């Protein structure tokens, strides 16, 4: 998991078994290509849709076991990974659907709509990782969904201001109305009682979801299980930092420093050895 970014299902790094690094890298290249088309550069919406349609044609070619009309080298490598590990293609199609939705949708009416987006944009990565390691049981998939969705929501809460600059609001509009928050709060970076109440509500929801999915990290053996423990506690630490900042994600965007990552490492080891999530202790260093 990169230190300066926390989103979706963290792509394992040095802890990933060496045999899986190449297939994970290929999957990541496909996902990153789609995400860059949807969100980077100066293309028009129509051009982005056309490029994503090309990627869909590449996936269709993999499904039909023929040469891809676009990015033939990348999709050729993906076809090999899909065949070797018997990966389903549905998660890739879901990710493309999420990219399309990201182009066309800048607001979400309620939490259900936002979670629906996360089911396509975040959860597929967890499904693919579990299929890669032969652990795609219903229980594991459900817990991975919780971790993936929670991780993406954390990235949304950290990037409220940055997303606003892209004309995107991921806080559910129904929640804004419930707590008396308007988009003017975001535009002006207003952190008042209404904003803090809203963010406390959102942080609590995400924390519960992350903890609910955490047992997956204890069921997955080896290095990947350790990485998942770290992902859980990294997410929880970000939530703590949001709270410590008084929910001000505008002027003091929460980041994790060296000390924070040491805290995450200690909690990861404790979780792994004790076989318990152990989040009842909100901070091992008290009020730091």
Automatic annotation (TrEMBL):
The keyword Transferase applies. Gene3D superfamilies: Farnesyl Diphosphate Synthase (1.10.600.10). Keywords: Transferase. It comes from the Bacteria. Pfam families: SQS_PSY. GO terms for molecular function: geranylgeranyl diphosphate synthase activity. Its EC number is 2.5.1.32. SUPFAM superfamilies: Terpenoid synthases (SSF48576). This is 15-cis-phytoene synthase. It comes from Paraburkholderia ultramafica.
